[in-house]
Write a structure and sequence with these properties.
This protein has 13 helices and eleven strands. It is α/β, with parallel strands linked by helices. The protein has two domains: 218 residues, Amidase signature (AS) domain (Amidase signature (AS) enzymes); 141 residues, Amidase signature (AS) domain (Amidase signature (AS) enzymes). It comes from Azospirillum himalayense.
Length: 427
């Protein structure tokens, strides 16, 4: 097995045991990128010399943290001091931030090696799409807006990568690329140095190829409960099968994956029961859209004023018509979200975790779209942690997944439950 084929957790163990060096792992990843990225186009910037120099330094030191010697990718809406942050926008080509975003600084302090910047939908918001293609079938989208990060981890260019989510920009690419993705509880990971779209929704997350990979990064970010949560037994675990209020948008492949996961869990001893959100939650998808667009006006007003001629019309519209959103409609949306968030945790008296779709189905054909975020928006506006997990392939041979959801600040518990569920669901 080549080093690039190792998961992050496998590589971490090999480095700690002296069976692998960080330099060998980084070299293997760079060779994989050279071989595959002309087709996949996941990366905007890669600096081999910089990454190799950092890897050699890591090999001279004892383990600095859970990410010691592991290369990681960074979505190019997140600042890096030694690589450009272009936002995939004509306005920011060649832009060099003065310092790393908080998440990059934490990953480096935990021993991680910055490998490069991954392509993204413009400002992780709209406008220009990433050039990235689905590595399983390049005629299909890898999802977005975290397009490059999802494809890079899925195609084994790098074991870990950062993404972001305002609607479904992180969880959906995980499903489309057949990998694991984790969106923590809103606010538990600093967003300093990351481009904002909607400040009350934007969340930073990460990708890996196993639950153990996601847990490594969660340890680096010192999420509450990490290292203290005991292993979860699958037998007796109470799983709520949630089709959600947007079920009419499901596709056959998405429904089949959800039911397959439920059946596999039941056969392994979990208790799977139907779960429905109360009527008060039925408009949350629309609420997320109003908040996203309403807050988007403030996020793009500076660029609209200073660089309107270079700002994509789709983004400029936030500062012009903005779908008729007013302060009244935005206030009403906030009120619905604020009412539903505290009620959500109370729904878990009879279940431990929610099982629901991460996307309608397989990745759509064409690069003009990144897919539909409808199966993500409810959970994003609720501020809850979400985890995407592969569950087979659809009729086009593309990955299909499921999504696990827990109450706010139950991030460590969600990772522990996912660790128990993965060997049954992802087979």
């Amino acid at each position: 097995m080549e080093p690039f084929e190792l998961t992050a957790s496998e590589a971490a163990h090999a480095i700690r045991d002296g069976r692998l060096t960080s330099e060998a792992l980084v070299r293997s990843c760079l060779e994989r990128i050279e071989d595959r990225d002309p087709e996949v186009r996941a990366w905007i910037t890669v600096d081999p010399a910089l990454a190799l120099a950092a890897a050699r330094e890591a090999d001279k030191r004892p383990a600095a943290g859970p990410l010691h010697g592991l290369p990681f990718g960074v979505k190019d809406v997140i600042d890096t001091a030694d690589l450009p942050t272009t936002q995939n926008s004509p306005i920011f080509q060649g832009h060099r931030p003065a310092r790393d975003a908080a998440c990059v600084a934490i990953a480096r302090s935990a021993g991680g090696i910055l490998l490069g910047k991954t392509d993204t939908v413009e400002f992780a918001s709209g406008g220009r799409k990433a050039a990235t293609r689905n590595p399983i079938n390049p005629a299909h989208t890898p999802g977005g807006s975290s397009s490059g990060s999802g494809a890079a981890v899925g195609d084994r260019h790098v074991p870990l990568a950062f993404g972001t989510q305002t609607g479904g920009s992180h969880i959906r690419p995980a499903a489309f690329n057949g990998i694991y993705g984790f969106k923590p509880t809103w606010g538990v990971v600093s967003r300093e140095g990351m481009k904002h779209y909607a400040v009350s929704l934007d969340t930073l997350g990460w990708y890996g190829r196993s639950v153990a990979d996601l847990a490594l990064m969660a340890e680096a970010f010192q999420l509450e409960g990490m290292g203290k949560t005991p292993p979860i037994k699958l037998a007796g675990l109470r799983v709520g099968l949630c089709r959600s209020p947007v079920w009419s948008r499901i596709e056959p492949a998405g429904e089949a994956a959800l039911l397959l996961a439920a059946r596999r869990l039941e056969e392994a001893g979990a208790v799977v029961v139907p779960f429905e959100l109360p009527d008060a939650f039925s408009t949350l998808a629309e609420v997320q859209d109003v908040i996203r667009r309403g807050e988007g006006r403030a996020s793009f007003l500076d660029l609209y004023i200073s660089d309107r001629h270079r700002l994509h019309p789709e983004l400029a519209d936030h500062c012009e018509h903005n779908h008729g959103i007013t302060t009244r409609t935005l206030t009403e949306a906030y009120d619905v979200a604020d009412t539903c968030r505290p009620r959500f945790a109370a729904l878990f008296e009879s279940i431990d975790v929610i099982l629901t779709p991460p996307a309608p189905g397989e990745a759509p054909e064409g690069l003009h779209t990144t897919g539909d975020h409808i199966f993500n928006s409810i959970w994003t506006v609720l501020h809850v942690p979400c985890l995407a997990m592969p569950c087979g392939r659809g009729p086009c041979g593309l990955p299909v997944g499921v999504q696990l959801v827990a109450p706010r600040f139950q991030d460590a518990a969600l990772l522990a439950m996912a660790e128990a569920m993965a060997p049954v669901v992802d087979v």
